[in-house]
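Researcher: First entry.
Model:
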Amino acid sequence: MDNLNLHDIEPELLEEMKELVLARIKTSSDDIIINIGSENYTKEQIMKSVEIADELGLEIIDTQMEFLRDLAGGEFYQMTASE
């Protein structure tokens, strides 16, 4: 599925997506570190980026929404079953 253009999305929809993604991140371990490129980000940094919807935050929102679409569509289960 193509990535969403989150720069052109309705503000209300973006806020709902941010809330959903933040809820998912909040359930993760407090000591989680995510590596993107050559940078490491803490849970707090990731949450802040999502909250302010900077470039990193938008990328995280897009990635999380893609995962949820795949999960809802059964694609995640098909990928794991074939491994």
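Researcher: Second entry.
Model:
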Amino acid sequence: MLSLRKLIAGPGSSVLSSLAAIAVGLLAGLAVLFVSDAGQAPRAFGAILTSGVSNLKEFGQVLYYATPIIMTGLSVGFANKTGLFNIGASGQFIVGAFAAVFVGVKGTFLPAGIHWVAGLLAAAVAGALWGAIPGILKALRNVNEVIACIMMNYIGMYLVNYLITKTVFDQLKNQSKRVADAANIPNLGFDAVFRDGTIISSAGGGIVIALALCVVMWAVLDKTTFGYELKACGLGRDAARYAGIGENRSIILSMVIAGALSGVGGALLYLAGSGKAIDVIDVLAAEGFNGIPVALLGLNNPIGILFSGLFVAYLTVGGFNMQLFGFAREIIEIIIATILYFSAFALLVKGALEQLANRRAALPERGPAKEANPSPGAAPDTGEGDES
């Protein structure tokens, strides 16, 4: 039983569960392809598996699509470490994106080397403020953070649409204006590397910032007292309170940091220099919700989230090329959804097995009863009573 407990609780078991979920998701996608068009299914599946590395331009697109979902995945995963489900990453993402675009359009008076930094900081502050509201409601009034975050998603979407039309609106395209060139994050020479002939990918310095923040969040959670307090609060709030850890403070700060990470994700997408603008439409930002499977697949670990974000982006690029064979891009969504469900199922099974192993380990071991050895010189007990 001890070996079973070690196998279940070992660090490799969670990684294996994620890999198994990925395999099941890919098989489900392959099955859908064969049902749709068996003749083109092998070539389309091959495109899913190989398009992301078919050339440097396509790999650059993987980095581009991975950047925002790594940030929203960090946001969801960081909050989960404190026992909170931050489903509000979409609202925090779009509010941060608007703050970055507003600074990028209106802040032309700023020096070139500071303009994009100001946009990032504005996005972080806006996202932090948007994340703080559900955190404060949870900490002070015990309002369920899921309900509060869902409401803040829609409030953020409609507020950003309104603010765009009043400040940085391009009426011809029904979207925000393009940011100034100085507001774009430095390319760091990615355009010279990630290209296919004259076709340049959209990759830029944003992926470097996302990578750096993954390392920072890992260090905060695993190497600092502050991170220990946040995780302790997530594992057991009553025990954390008994140990003197401020429960309300941890909840609020966790949501503030999570909101800032999502907000920065919005800035990294719209200040990437790809010419992307915020469309004024009544649709929640998909990048926020895509952060949920990224965090779950990455086991809420910042380094795991980095790789899971790259994997989901890899599938996204493969989905674009899969359409060349007549298949709908939604098949990629089916694959990602299947991976998400099986990841959650694997974690549930692991938790059940851990509880079973712990209960069995708590039972006393059964064995043959051993008679007590009499002390030297003691007369054997004949079972006869004393005569009166």
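Model: Note on the second entry: The domain at 58-326 is CATH 1.10.3470 (ABC transporter involved in vitamin B12 uptake, BtuC).
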